[in-house]
Amino acid sequence: MSTGSAPPSNPRQLPLALAAAPRFGMEDFIVGTANAAAHDLVLAWPDWPGPVVLLIGPEGAGKSHLAAIWAAAAAATILPAGDLATIDPVALAARGGVAVEDAGPGLDEPALFHLLNAAREAGSPVLITARAEPVAWGLGLPDLVSRLRAATPVRLEEPDDALLEAVIGKLFADRQTMVDPQVVRFLARRIERSYGAAVRTVERIDREALAAKAAITRPLAARLIADAWSREPHLPGLEETEPDEHNPS
């Protein structure tokens, strides 16, 4: 007879921290009033107003998705801004267009300037994604400032209610998680109206459901939002849950 303690009846298994694989096809991009201008400009290539375009928007707004769509259409190379110093700008620009991802404070200014020069000489277009306008990057190289000032900027704004709901549904779908549309609507009405809040909320709820081996229901979603609020009242991306007048569960 074993003297060891019995295992718990419903053990929780912590899920592996595997990143969701977002779908970056043209058909997967959700268009709304907040991102229509950026979407239309990307799809207008090669009829751009100028050879350099700046996509500016908050976390999760779809900048990388649009960059992937453009890179596929233009046979362009996608280059993280952090890798600018590792490439030969002349050789890269000679191959065609370049999408520089996540530019911002701390980037290698001479490397970006040399790439823009090489692209201009080669006649290759450049798309740059960033969370803020270049004026907020703290740039110190006047020639680079001048080049970026001449670029065509287009903003992606935070989503409206309809777009936020669609984004939450896509984020769950990217994680191959089936969620009732009513749960998606419930979340969209209770979290901060931002892409970043949607990303954090979906990740948190999906991980909790996997750990508990439970379906994602409205009571589960409400509990997680309330728990997060009670533990961290100033947690970005979550608002205090309000009761649903039609269904308080």
Short description:
The chain is an alpha/beta fold and 249 residues long. Helix content is 41%, strand content 10%.
Written account of the structure:
This protein has 249 residues and is an alpha/beta fold. It contains nine helices and five strands, in the order H-E-H-E-H-E-H-E-H-E-H-H-H-H. It has helices at residues 36-43, 63-74, 89-94, 109-122, 142-149, 161-174, 181-188, 195-212, 218-231, and strands at 52-56, 77-80, 98-103, 126-130, 152-155. A five-stranded parallel sheet has the order 2-3-4-1-5, covered by helices on one side. Helix 8 (195-212) packs across helix 9 (218-231). The relative contact order is 0.14.
Average pLDDT, rounded to a whole number, is 84
Largest sheet, if any? 5 strands, parallel
Please estimate the helix content: 40-55%
Derived from helix and strand composition plus strand pairing, the structural class reads alpha/beta
Oligomeric description of these chains: single chain
Helix-strand pattern, N to C? HEHEHEHEHEHHHH
Secondary structure: number of strands: 5
* Basic shape: elongated
Calculate Rg over CA atoms. Answer: 22 Å
User: Beta-sheet strand percentage?
Assistant: 5-15%
Low-confidence stretches: 1-18, 233-249
